[in-house]
Automatic annotation (TrEMBL):
Domain of life: Bacteria
Annotated family: Belongs to the inositol monophosphatase superfamily.
A molecular-function term among this protein's GO annotations: metal ion binding
PANTHER family: INOSITOL MONOPHOSPHATASE (PTHR20854), INOSITOL-1-MONOPHOSPHATASE-RELATED (PTHR20854:SF4)
Enzyme class: hydrolase
Name listed for the protein in its UniProt record: Inositol-1-monophosphatase
EC number(s) recorded for this UniProt protein: 3.1.3.25
Membrane spanning residue stretches: none
Matching Pfam families: Inositol_P
Length: 264
């Protein structure tokens, strides 16, 4: 476990916001049958969770900057620390009543992600990581999978929304990866995809067109679990590249080679 004051701040903030989100998810399930659907309600739930996170983090660490999915950026007086906050990652799942979404909070210190918390309130799974202290799921130490063969590997990926990203490119990459791996899944939450690689449930994951709040917490989760996380092109800075590829050292190298081949 990690018992630092920083982790306490992050976990408390995330758990507090999760209570509202879980309650709202129950309501979304009821709204599925209405013709207009629960779209507007979900956007309110999302903003409410973000407000809870913003307030808790700003109170505990005044001066830190915030980059948030809904509210944009808040520039703090402390130029060295930035929170990257996604109050609801897996919005499409949430909207459709699919119980696979999370809250994701990462902390950046001078360009380096130093801590991350990802919480799935439906499964009550809390993933935490702090630099040099390992990654944990509900107190259990995490390790990426030890698989060595692509043919056995379960691969997660994400596809861009309608009107966003490069769909033909994704289809080429997916075709190349599908042809040689054990199975592919599109689960709909980037933060949980990273967490699932960190805990060895999945062997590999890649996605493009992501933002810092989707990835920050998950990147440190994978690295502290002994995995490799780079941009989808194999570069060191996933955040700057807005893309990610991760897994254990061996399979990660294979995935980067496959993605390169798909783009030739
Ligand atoms: P969201 O649920 O907060 O929108 C799905 O592929 C995952 O990628 C989700 O975590 C989703 O976050 C995130 N994502 C971010 N930008 C995206 C985009 N342009 N298209 C699809 N997914 C995106
Ligand atoms: Ca997101």
């Amino acid at each position: 476990m990690i018992n630092s004051p920083l982790m306490t701040v992050m976990v408390d903030a995330v758990r507090k916001a999760a209570r509202g989100l879980k309650r709202d998810f129950g309501e979304v399930e009821n709204l599925q049958v209405s013709r207009k659907g629960p779209g507007n309600f979900v956007s309110i739930a999302d903003k409410r969770a973000e407000a809870v996170l913003r307030e808790a983090l700003m109170k505990a660490r005044p001066g830190y900057s915030l980059i948030m999915e809904e509210g944009g950026s808040i520039e703090g007086s402390d130029k060295t620390h930035t929170w990257h906050v996604d109050p609801l990652d897996g919005t499409t799942n949430f909207l459709h009543g699919i119980p696979h979404f999370c809250i994701s909070v990462g902390l950046e210190r001078e360009g380096v992600i130093v801590a991350g918390v990802i919480y799935d309130p439906i499964k009550d799974e809390l993933f935490i990581a702090e630099r040099g202290q390992g990654a944990f799921l509900n107190n259990r130490r995490l390790r990426v999978s030890a698989r060595r063969d692509l043919a056995d590997a379960l691969v997660l990926y994400g596809s861009p929304y309608l009107g966003r990203g490069n769909h033909p490119r994704l289809l080429k990459e997916l075709g190349t990866v599908m042809a040689v791996t054990g199975g592919v899944r599109r689960q709909g939450s980037a933060a949980l995809d990273l967490a699932y690689v960190a805990c060895g449930r999945a062997d590999l994951y890649w996605e493009r067109d992501l933002q810092s709040w989707d990835m920050a917490a998950g990147l440190i989760m994978v690295r502290e679990a002994g995995g490799f996380a780079t941009s989808a092109d194999g570069g060191p800075d996933a955040l700057a590249a807005h893309s990610v590829a991760c897994g254990n050292e061996l399979l990660h190298r294979d995935l980067i080679a496959l993605l390169k081949k798909a783009n030739q």
